[in-house]
User: Fold Dihydroorotate dehydrogenase B (NAD(+)), electron transfer subunit from Flavonifractor plautii 1_3_50AFAA.
Amino acid sequence: MPIQKLCTVAEAVRLNEFACSLTLEAEGMEPQGPDQFVHVKCGHSRLLRRPISICDWGKNRLRIVFEVRGEGTEWLARRKAGDTLDVLGPLGCGFQVEREARCLLVGGGIGVPPMLGCAKWTAGQSTAVLGFRSADRAMLTEEFQKCCKDVLLCSDDGSLGQKGFVDAQVRAVLEKDKNFTAVLACGPKPMLKNVAAVAAEYGVPCQVSMEERMACGVGACLGCAIQMADGTMKHVCKDGPVFDAEEVEWNV
Ligand SMILES: Cc1cc2nc3c(=O)[nH]c(=O)nc-3n(C[C@H](O)[C@H](O)[C@H](O)COP(=O)(O)OP(=O)(O)OC[C@H]3O[C@@H](n4cnc5c(N)ncnc54)[C@H](O)[C@@H]3O)c2cc1C
Ligand code: FES
Assistant:
């Protein structure tokens, strides 16, 4: 059940020039599984909250990891330990995955943090493919290495790991071993579309976490509606952000 409360920042860490990690004291807000999100008020003057995935959690504790994109996340990045944040959550439906599952986890850019929750949830069994624009944007890679069987890195410019996009790595992994319970992916829509296509080609079920601009975050404003393959519309905030890849209409 989502609640709204003022959460104290327990720890604020800069991960690189662009990304920050905030650990929040958040009693009663622990998610039921990976990739639910919180809706965070970013300063008094900004009416709309910003949706950020829960990257990791423990008893009475949530962690969010985000990149600075605009005014809201820029304000958030200036928070320090002891500050309070107005947080609503946990919201949405995350990845449907059993703890004993062996998954291929795929994250691109700001889609990487929620996959850490999946990696910890399926501790030690999953393989992660993580893609960044360049080495200076890499984050959380050592934490993935601690809780994944294997971690493959790639970057658009070749400055980290394999040069190229994550879907090429996903293809290389599945070519050698299709025996995964599921492919779970989070990142920009073109990346998700390509990963979904590769997973379908190799016959592995795929779930994708969709990113859409949000206003209310709770299914009340229609701001985040996306089209499904069967012609219906669904809310990313309430029905998602995670959907079966086959449900999504990719060609819009
Ligand atoms: C379910 C979900 C989970 C997310 N998880 C993360 C995460 O873990 N880490 C992370 O770095 N980012 C995440 N994002 C993206 C993050 O919400 C945006 O980067 C952020 O809202 C940008 O706000 P801003 O004020 O800095 O930028 P601005 O561009 O100034 O924002 C202006 C408005 O647009 C909305 N908006 C802008 N970009 C996005 C976007 N990509 N998605 C949704 N709303 C947007 C904002 O809510 C705001 O109302 C997530 C988005 C969604 C939908
Ligand atoms: S953001 Fe309002 S319905 Fe989803």
About this structure: The helical segments are 71-77, 112-121, 141-147, 166-176, 189-201. The pocket of flavin-adenine dinucleotide (ligand 1) is lined by residues 37, 48, 50-53, 65-67, 69-73, 110, 113-114, 211-214, 241 (CB under 6 Å). The two ends are 33 Å apart (CA to CA).
